[in-house]
Amino acid sequence: MNITIREEGNCIIVKFEGRLDTVAAEKAKKELDPLYNNTGHDVTIDCEQLEYISSSGLRILLSIRKAAAISGNKVTILNISSDIEKVFAMTGFDTLFDIQKK
Amino acid sequence: MQKKLTLVNQIDEICKLQEFVEEICEQAGFDMSVTMSLNLALEEAVTNVIDYAYPEGTEGNVDIVGEISGKQLKFIISDTGQPFDPTAQATADITLGVEERPIGGLGIFLVRQIMDNVIYQRQNGVNKLTLIKNI
Predict the structure, then answer these.
(1) ipTM confidence
(2) N or C: which end of chain A has fewer CB within 10 A?
(3) Structural domain containing residue A95
C-alpha cells in the first residue's frame, strides 16, 4: 500500500495505491493522522489505484469524514471501482461521502 | 475438495489468507468480483479471532478450512480462545449520519452481508464459525 498526500490550495489530496487491508490500515492510520483534526481543508481521496478495502480502511475514511464534518469541510472520493463501490453500498458509506465513480 | 490453513494470532498473518481464498474461489468458479468479496469476509472474520479470541500476549492458532461440496463453498474458522459468538452481535445501523455513525462494528456486519449463511458453534472448547456461499 502506497499513500501520497499533497496540498493544493485549500484542498488536501490523498492518493491510495494498492490494498488497504487490516495490516496496511495500521500503517495508513499513522500516515493520515493530520487529517483526523481538520484545520479547514476540503479532502479529496483518489481511489483510482485502490484495489481493495477492509473494515479497518473504512474506519480511517470515516474518521476523516467526521473530522471534516466538524470543520465544515467536504470529503470527495474519486475514481472508485465498482467492487469497492459495492462495499460502500453494503455499509451505507455511499450516503456519507460525495462519490465520483471511475 | 478441501484445503486447510493455520495461522497464529498475529495480525500480519492475514497476508496469507488472500492466496488461500483465491485458490478455493477459482476451484468454485467464482469471478474476480465475488472472490474479492469473499476475501473481505474471510479477512474480517479471521481478524476478529486474531484480535479478540486469546488474551493479550498469549499465542494461539486460527484454523481455516475451505471446502467445496455440491453447490456450496464453506469456510470453517476455528480457534480455542474464549467463547465468542459473532452472529449474536447487534447489526450495524447503516442509515445513521456522519456524526452519529460509530467508527467500528462493520467487520462482522460485512461478513453477514457477503455470505449466504453464517453459523456459530461452540464445541469442546472450540469456537467454530462456518461461512457459507452458494455456488
Answers:
(1) 0.93
(2) C
(3) 2-101
